[in-house]
Write a structure and sequence with these properties.
heterodimer; A: alpha/beta; D-Maltodextrin-Binding Protein, domain 2; 3 domains; 5-stranded mixed beta sheet; 13 helices; B: mainly alpha; about 80% helix; elongated
């Protein structure tokens, strides 16, 4: 409670917020306090969140921001008109210009990451690119082009994902890319294919218990231009922030004793744990984010097609292709078999 | 001849000491002593000084006295000329010697430390890209570079023990080197397991190299280069004191001989003639050999050293460009900064215009124009750099088309790779630097040899001149006995 109170009081000073958020921040400071009181007693929020359906979207966002998105306050982002950021176009396999182009070319060009262990990386001892993202790319390519499809994998920097899609350099980006309202203004996303949230990753023996006062005076590492960077700009709980270019650089800093904890989403953290088993996640997720396939806004036929592929990919629950890929890459590091329910693919949300 | 100041009545002068000057001498001595009761605390030095002045004044009134004074002045000037020349030339010889034997080698050594480190960094990245297929030769190159850099650092530490600033840089390098190699080994170990973490480690190692080690090595190079420039400036400085003493000695000698001629109607005083001849000879020797030494030092400093400086700059740019090229691939699309840095470095090397040579290599080539042995390797380096740029563009195209393995092959493979061109740039520049280093050393030795014997000769000639003067004046003096 003390944390929430403190955060609520600090709201007027908060920076790096949309002007709309800033305008409502003061008005909702008290609401945030009440909200966090309520949230502390409430079950984890479903759609609609602890604020109730009648609460204006911007107000809900401001409240989340004020709380630093801590613990139970984390909820999916909502864009204008209450629409969830994860909503996409209805699935359909109709050959439009974009799909026809790809088929004519006989090759799918995909922007991927080669540095995210378990998600997209080069398999040891071979030159193959593998990972959870890559499995999905394979499924999409096979659906579009038939068996043994030709795929061009293009490793692109995080900051160039949107440009690569917009410039038509690639047909799609499948690269642990979170769906956000802001990005929806520049690219189109498929439905969600993975849900995650920002969390703290610490070495074993660390006294940090979560993103709270226990990080005060500790060196907290985060990569530039990430959700973690935005979170830490708003609220650092007295931590000394270590800034690097890539989230993997944070793991290097921790191993070298130059940082005490790193903040990234739990999906990428799984890759870190896999590379350094002494690392562990602490505290509750600070945000609720979904990964989506990013495509050009001018290619709605491709978006619908990918959504149709995703429908099939997710179908079958525990027997789905999604689950098979999950078990191959992520289960060992993300899923506590004794305590967690078996993971299921995220439910798709559609606009129409 | 003491006059106790407390003696109340002026005592009679203690006997006539000389014939004509006696009365004047006592008169002036009395005049200076009489006016006031000088307190006893007055230091006696003052008295002897004024007495000396009085004796001098007395001496100027007789011809033998004047001759003695002329002899002393001429002799003094010749001694000053000889000893001054010897001292100042020895200084310049010493400075030239320091340049040749100590400060320029230290500067070259610092440049080599920089190159070894940059090359080790490049070899580490090249080996990393090959992963488990790492070419043993690349690994060996990395290890040799590190070992040689450590050895050079030990040499530099021993040779520059007098400079606290140099020691500070060397300490920084000595501390940073094992940290760097530790990071490279961690990167290797992770990479061999196929963990992307290895790449992050290598990027961090590269960052340490670029931002700490290479900066310290560059600072050390600059420090040592400044020092050797300073030594060259010292060696080039005109020996004004000696030249002025020599000139003045000749003027006084000429005047003395004219006086001799006017007084005696004798045309020649063999002693003074000999003194004049030796002084002239020494002045010509000093002026001429210093002028020649300066010319040689100008060759060394303005020619070879400048060329060395731009070639060293070009060489390090080439090495760092190669490092950037490798790191771009190590990053696997994690960032574009290294690619931009690569392009900037190539432009620094050959200029923005692919047709007309510019940049550091273009400058170096222009400087070496006319010296075919010096220019040829630089031209080869320019051509190889152009080809390197073209092959790099082809490799980059492959990378951007998603053919990562093709891009790696294009960069670290055999024939047709950018590695081939980089190696050619590397060897060409090594040859060019070795050539300029030779030129420099030859010019430095030439400068030094032009001052050979002058320091000793100056003392000898100065002594001869003094002897001649003594002879000439003594002969005249004897005519008054």
């Amino acid at each position: 409670m003390t944390t929430s109170e403190k955060v609520g009081v600090e709201v007027p000073e908060v920076e790096d917020r949309g002007s709309r958020g800033r305008a409502t921040a003061l008005a909702t400071a008290a609401a945030a306090l009440l909200l966090s009181l309520a949230a502390a007693c409430a079950a984890p929020p479903g759609p609609g969140g602890p604020g109730g359906a009648g609460r204006p979207v911007s107000e809900a966002r401001a409240a989340d921001d004020a709380g630093g998105g801590i613990g139970p306050l984390a909820e999916p982002e909502r864009c204008d008109g209450q629409r969830s950021a994860a909503e996409s176009l209805a699935p359909a396999r109709i050959v439009g210009d974009a799909v026809a182009d790809i088929r004519e070319r006989g090759r799918l060009r995909v922007g991927i990451d080669l540095n995210s262990y378990l998600w997209g990386y080069r398999e040891p001892g071979s030159t193959d690119i593998v990972g959870f993202d890559i499995d999905l790319v394979q499924a999409i390519a096979e659906d579009l082009l038939g068996p043994d499809p030709e795929i061009t994998y293009l490793a692109i920097p995080t900051v160039q994902r949107i440009d690569a899609v917009r410039a038509g350099q690639v047909d799609m980006v499948v690269r642990t890319m979170s769906i956000t309202c802001e990005r929806w203004n520049q690219v189109a996303f498929s439905t969600a294919y993975f849900e995650t949230g920002q969390q703290l990753l610490v070495p074993s023996g660390s006294e940090i218990t979560g993103f709270d006062d226990s990080v005060a005076g500790q060196r907290l590492c985060r990569a530039d231009g990430t959700t973690a960077a935005r979170l830490l700009d708003r609220q650092d709980h007295g931590a000394e922030v270590v800034r690097v270019a890539n989230h993997l650089d944070c793991l290097v800093r921790i191993q070298l004793g130059l940082a005490d904890a790193l903040m990234t989403d739990s999906a990428l953290a799984a890759g870190h744990v896999a590379q350094d088993p002494s690392m562990r996640l602490v505290g509750d997720p600070l945000t609720m984010e979904s990964y989506g396939v990013a495509m050009n806004q001018d290619n709605p036929d491709l978006v619908r097609w990918v959504n149709a592929v995703l429908e099939d990919y997710r179908a079958g629950g525990v027997t789905s292709d999604w689950r098979a890929s999950y078990d191959t890459w992520l289960a060992e590091y993300l899923y506590d078999q004794r305590n967690d329910p078996p993971p299921l693919p995220p439910e798709p949300l559609y606009r129409e | 001849m003491t006059h106790p100041p407390i003696a109340p009545p002026a005592p009679p002068a203690p006997g006539p000491s000389s014939v004509s000057a006696a009365s004047a001498s006592t008169a002036s001595a009395a005049a200076s002593a009489a006016p006031a009761p000088v307190p006893p605390s007055e230091p006696p030095r003052r008295r002897s000084w004024s007495e000396g002045a009085a004796r001098l004044r007395a001496a100027t009134r007789t011809e033998p006295g004047r001759l003695r004074i002329i002899g002393v002045v001429v002799g003094g000037l010749l001694v000053l000329f000889g000893v001054g020349t010897s001292w100042q030339v020895a200084d310049r010889y010493q400075a030239a010697d320091t340049v040749l034997e100590s400060s320029q080698p230290l500067s070259a050594g610092a440049a080599e430390i920089y190159r070894l480190l940059a090359d080790a960094n490049t070899a580490a990245a090249t080996g990393f890209l090959a992963g488990a297929d790492e070419d043993p030769a690349v690994r060996q190159r990395y290890e040799e570079n590190i070992a040689n850099a450590a050895g050079r650092l030990a040499d530099a530490a021993a040779d520059s023990s007098g400079s606290a600033a140099a020691q500070a840089y060397i300490t920084l390098l000595n501390e940073g080197l094992p940290v760097y190699t530790g990071l490279v080994e961690t990167a290797r170990a992770n990479n061999r397991q196929g963990l992307p973490l290895g790449g992050a480690y290598l990027r961090y190692a590269d960052e340490q190299m670029q931002q700490t080690l290479l900066v310290a090595a560059a600072d050390l190079y600059e420090l040592e280069t400044d020092r050797f420039q300073h030594d060259i400036t010292e060696a080039r400085a005109w020996p004004w004191l000696a030249l002025a003493a020599g000139g003045l000695a000749l003027v006084v000698l000429a005047w003395a001989q004219r006086r001799h001629y006017l007084r005696t109607n004798r045309l020649l005083s063999p002693g003074l003639m000999a003194a004049t001849a030796t002084a002239t000879l020494l002045l010509l020797w000093l002026g001429g050999s210093h002028w020649l030494a300066r010319a040689a030092l100008d060759d060394a400093d303005g020619g070879a050293a400048r060329s060395l400086s731009s070639l060293n700059g070009a060489w390090t740019e080439a090495l760092r460009a190669r490092g950037d090229e490798n790191i771009t691939l190590v990053a696997r699309g994690a960032d574009n900064a290294s690619e931009e840095s690569f392009q900037a470095r190539l432009e620094t090397l050959i200029g923005p215009d692919p047709e007309s040579p510019g940049g550091l290599l273009g400058d170096a080539a222009a400087r070496a124009a006319g010296d075919s042995d010096g220019e040829a390797p630089i031209q080869r380096a320019i051509e190889a750099t152009r080809e390197w740029a073209a092959r790099h563009a082809a490799g980059r195209e492959r990378e951007l088309a998603g053919d990562y393995d093709g891009a790696v092959e294009q960069v670290i493979g055999g024939r047709g790779s950018t590695r081939e061109m980089f190696d050619r740039v590397n060897t060409s520049l090594a040859e060019a630097v070795a050539h300029e280093q030779e030129q420099f050393e030859a010019a430095g030795r030439r400068a030094r040899s032009r001052l050979d014997g002058l320091a000793v000769g100056a003392v000898g000639l100065g002594a001869l001149g003094v002897a001649g003067t003594a002879l000439g004046i003594g002969r005249r003096l004897s005519e008054y006995r």
